[in-house]
Amino acid sequence: MAARWCPPPTSVRTAIPGPEWTRTMDGDRHREAPAAAVTARYTEAMRRALTLAARGPARSENPQVGCVVLSPLGETLAEGWHRGVGTAHAEADALAHLAPGAAAGSTVVVTLEPCNHTGRTGPCTEALSAAGVARVVYASDDPSPNAAGGAARLRAAGVEVIGGVLREEAQTLLGEWLFAAQHGRPRVTLKWAMSIDARAAAADGTSQWITGNTARTDGHRRRGQHDAIAVGIGTILADDPALTARDERGALLDEQPIPVVFGTRTVPANAAVTRHPHRPVTMTGHDLLSDMSELKARGIRSLYVEGGPRLQTAFLRAGVVDEVLVYIAPLLLGGPNLAIGDLGPTTLDEAFALEFVRVERIGTDVLLIAHPRSAAIGSSPDIPTTGPARKGR
Fold first, then answer.
1. Of 205, 228, 247, 197, whose CA–CA distance to 303 is shortest?
2. What per-residue confidence (pLDDT) applies to 189?
3. Closest-CA residue to 167 (of 46, 74, 14)
4. Is 306 a catalytic residue?
5. Is the per-residue pLDDT at 384 higher than 90?
6. Domain spanning 184-372: which superfamily?
């Protein structure tokens, strides 16, 4: 139990003022105070809550959330954070450090809008109302269809609600989780390496290696920044990739992406990917949108797609690509092995339009980073699982 705080003499007590409501946001789901009415104490407490949130697991189907409980005079009464799936949410964790009734009249500062549904644990809105909390200050809205609406429910119960305090900082921390919660799928990065004339392999199928060591090291670093890495079964059969994230010396990085293999053919029992630190996940690829929903349900919030060309093309046609990374080597190969297959457009107006975000020199190669800015091309097609597989990664 946290140490009880004794208030100062009445003559020096200064209560934190409440906000004046000025505008409605998100269809009257919550009201937000103007910046001048949000006290420095709330901001300070929110920064502390963000620090607490970062203690939780970065890779989980649940978000990282931190919470600070303040007395009516602004003193910290308790702190908490979410430790992962099946454990207490941050608000409940903080309240558990207080004696019954000690939270009455308090202000709860939390990094994410309190949840409004029953899952493995009960709704945070009910726990806050039952504790007699007078005010809830939160940073980011919860876009989850099943958990959103907590602010409105608290307000209906007579609890004051302030949203948007340090929203940008919270959304930076929760970026991938917020994306997955809003879109129902992981954020997808599509990566490939190619020659200047857009070939992913030479005419004989060899592709190891098109790019230099520096570019490959950069690609491995980015692998480690994602929850999962995906390839087609053709790449597994042709190249036998380990799908691990390694440094320039070949040592495993601390963070390893979960390997995901798309296709209907069986991964060989002796394939290198079977020795990955994480058990491989297999998906048929017949319905990419459904597959993406399944990966999100598994707690995968970011997916790094490395190919081959058929899988890359399928992701583009399905409209589930959020970032494109293209490593370009100073080579001319010619031949039939294009990095991307038929996307469907028959005229220039139907092209899959991208917006360049950054261009980097990576050793002897160039990295192009772009984001899609047009609607998806076509619908979600089956991923071909027959025919010649691309050789090389």
1. 228
2. 96
3. 46
4. no
5. no
6. Dihydrofolate Reductase, subunit A (3.40.430.10)
